[in-house]
Design goal:
Residues 42-58 have a biased composition (Low complexity). Helices cover 5% and strands 32% of the residues. The protein is built from 2 helices and 13 strands, in the order αβββββββαββββββ. The strands form 3 sheets. It has a 6-stranded antiparallel beta sheet with strand order 1-5-6-7-11-10, with no helix packed on it. The protein is globular and about 45 Å long. Mean pLDDT is 81; it is low at 1-25 and 27-56.
C-alpha cells in the first residue's frame, strides 16, 4: 500500500526525474553477487556511459529499492562496477530527532526529524550524471518507508538549521560532505532516495536502532 501526501511545490529540478536516464545504480560487492546486467544505451549515449547494476533483482526490497547499509558506498554514471562510477555517494549517519537550533522548528506531532550525514565524490560526469547528482539527496527525492509497507514523501525539515547542508551544486572531480534534513512520520524505519533506473527504483537505508 502507498500512502500519498500532498507534495509541496515541485521544483524544476525534480521534474528532471520524469525523463528516462542513461544511468543505473551501481553497488559494491557487499550488496550481492551476480553478473552485471547491461542497460540498453539511449540514442546518442556511448557504451561507456551506459551503466549497469551488479545486484540481482532478488536483492531489491518489496518496493524495488536497492538496500544499502549506512556507511556503504553506492554510485551512478558507471561503466560497469562501483569503481567505474563517476558519482559515488554514501549515507554516513542518520540522526533521529536531533536537537533543534535556537531558531529551529521541531517536527509536528506524530512526525520526526531525520538528519542524514552524506558524502559524495565525482569524476568526469556525463550530462545525465550532472543532472542526477544534485538530486540524489534533494529532500523531495527522499521517501520514508515503514515496516507496515507505507511509503511517505519526505518534507524538508527546519529543526537543525542550514549550517553544514550538502551543496546543491555538484561539479566534476569534486568531493562533498554535508547534511540533509527531512521530516517524516514517526513510523518511518528506512529512508530511500527514489530514482527510476529501470532495474531498480533507487536506494534505501535502514535507520539504525
Amino acid at each position: 500500500m502507498i500512502a500519498s501526501r500532498p507534495r509541496p511545490r515541485t521544483t524544476t529540478a525534480v521534474a528532471a526525474l520524469l525523463f528516462p536516464l542513461a544511468l543505473s545504480a551501481c553497488s559494491s560487492g557487499a550488496s550481492g553477487g551476480g553478473s552485471p546486467a547491461p542497460v540498453p544505451s539511449p540514442s546518442g549515449t556511448s557504451p561507456a556511459q551506459a551503466t549497469t547494476s551488479s545486484s540481482p533483482r532478488a536483492a531489491l526490497t518489496a518496493q524495488g529499492f536497492l538496500p544499502k547499509e549506512v556507511g556503504q558506498a553506492a554510485g551512478i554514471d558507471c561503466a560497469s562496477d562501483l569503481e567505474s562510477c563517476k558519482v559515488k555517494f554514501t549515507v554516513d549517519e542518520i540522526e533521529v530527532s536531533p536537537e533543534c537550533d535556537e531558531f529551529g522548528t521541531p517536527a509536528s506531532d506524530g512526525r520526526k526529524t531525520f538528519l542524514l550525514h552524506v558524502s559524495l565524490t565525482t569524476g568526469e560526469m556525463s550530462e545525465n550524471g550532472k543532472s542526477v547528482a544534485p538530486l540524489l539527496f534533494n529532500p523531495y527525492s527522499l521517501k520514508g518507508i515503514g515496516d507496515d509497507g507505507f511509503v511517505h514523501d519526505a518534507l524538508p525539515g527546519s529543526c537543525a538549521g542550514y549550517d553544514g547542508r550538502i551543496s546543491n551544486d555538484i561539479f566534476n572531480n569534486s568531493k562533498y560532505t554535508g547534511k540533509v534534513e527531512v521530516e517524516l512520520p514517526a513510523s518511518t524505519t528506512s529512508i530511500a532516495s527514489a530514482h527510476d533506473f529501470g532495474e531498480n527504483r533507487g536506494w534505501v537505508w535502514k535507520i539504525p536502532a
